[in-house]
Amino acid sequence: MLAPVMHETALCSTAASSDAESGIPPRPVSDVSAGVGLCGLAGLIAWLLVCRNWGVIGDALALPGPHAPLAGPYAALVALIASGVPMVTWSVVVDKVHRRPSTGIDWHHPRPLRDVIDGAVIKLAGLWATWALIAFVYALGRWYWRGNYLFAMELLGYAAPALFLGAVPYVLWLDRVLIEPRDGAWHFGAMLIGRPGWDRAEIAHHLRAWAVKGFFIAFMLSIVTLGFMEEVKADFGHIAGDIGAIGPVPLANVATDFMFMVDVQIAMVGYLLTIKPLDAHIRSANPLLAGWLAALLCYPPFNSVPLLDYHPNTADWSYWLAGRTALLWIWAVLLVGLTAIYAWATVAFGLRFSNLTYRGVLTNGPYAWTRHPAYLAKNTFWWLMTLPFLVTTHSPVDAVRDTVALALLGGVYYWRARTEEAHLLAADAKYRDYHAWMGQYGPITARLNRLGRWLLRLRAR
Questions:
Q1: pTM (2 d.p.)
Q2: What value does the mean pLDDT take over residues 332-339?
C-alpha cells in the first residue's frame, strides 16, 4: 500500500468525518491531491486568456511583432508548459511527492558518480534501443505520415536529439539517488549487450510502458493543438448574438470544445511527465491482452471498425430539437455538464493521467462517485449528442443499426473498464480497498451494483 502524504489526508478529513457520522467507513485517501489538477487548469486558462488578448497586450506594452491573437500550434504547445509548471510546483512544494517512498528514491544518501557510471551506460543502451524501436514502428505505420500525425512526427523529430543527449545527465543524476537503479531500461540494455542478471518480467514491463507512451504521445501530439487554437479563435461576441436568434447551440458547442481541450491538454502533460522524482512514473502497464484490445479499439487507426460506427445517416441534437427552445437549453446544459465531468475526471489525475497504466490510486473528485466517471460521462454524451435512433433517412433499419453500433461501443468501454479494474486489483492493495468501498458506498457505483444484483435475482426467478 502506498504511503499518503499528510496534506492529502487533510483534504479528505471533512469527507471522512462526514462518512464516520453516517456510519460509513472513510474512503481510501487519494494519491493525487485536488490541488494539482486545479493548478494546471488555472495555468491553462491564464495562458488561453493571454493568447486571446495578445493584441491588446502587445499594444499596451509596445511589444514587437504582430499584435494579434496567438492562435498557432506553438502557442498551444506553450499551453503544456503553462499547465505543467503549476502542477509540478504544487506537487513538489505542497504535496512533497518527491519524498514519498513510492518514488524509490533516497535523496539523503546519493552514490558517488563513479559508482553509477557502469549501470547508467547499460540503462542508456536500453533507453536508446527502446526509442529506436518506437521510431521504427512510427516509420512502419502509414497513418503516422498523413493528416494531423505529420505535425506530431515533426515535433518528435525535433525532440529526438535533445532526448538522446538529455538522457545522459538525467540517468546519471537519477541513478545516484535511486534505491534500486536496475529498472526495466537496465534489464533491457543488459539483455541487448549480453550482461548477466537481466530479468524477462522487468523487460516486459519496460516495453509495455514505453508502448503506451509511444502510441499515446504521438496521438495526443496530433490533436493537442487543434482544440486550443479553436478556443483562441472563438468569437464570443458573435456567439452571444446568436443566442437570441438560434438558441444555445453555438454556445454549447464552444463550451463542450473547451472541456475537451482541457482534457487533452492536461492528459498530454500526464503522458510527458512519467518520471520517478515526481512520483508519477508508471508502476505497471496493463499486462492483459484484453485490456490492450479494448483500449486500442477506442483510438485511431483501430477505432475505424465499421461495426462500431454509429454516425451514418445521423444528425446531431440541434437538428432534431430545432425550434424547441426550452428543450434545446435543457439539452445544452446536459451536454456541457457531461463534458465538464469528463474533463474533471482528467484534471483530477493531475500529472498522472495515462491509459493502460497504474500510476497511483485516485479516489477523490468524480472518482468519489463512480470508479469510471469519464467513461460514464462520455458514453452518455454520445447518446444525447447523436440520438442514433433518429436518422435522416427515416429508415427503421438505419435507426436500429446506429443504435446497436453505439450500444456496442458502450460495450467496448464496459469491457475496457473491467480490464482496467482487473489490472489495478492485481497491482495494489489500496486500489482493492477503494474498489470494495465504491462497490459498497459509492453514490453511483453502489446503486448500479444493487441494480445489477436485482436484475440477476429477477432473471433467476
A1: 0.92
A2: 98
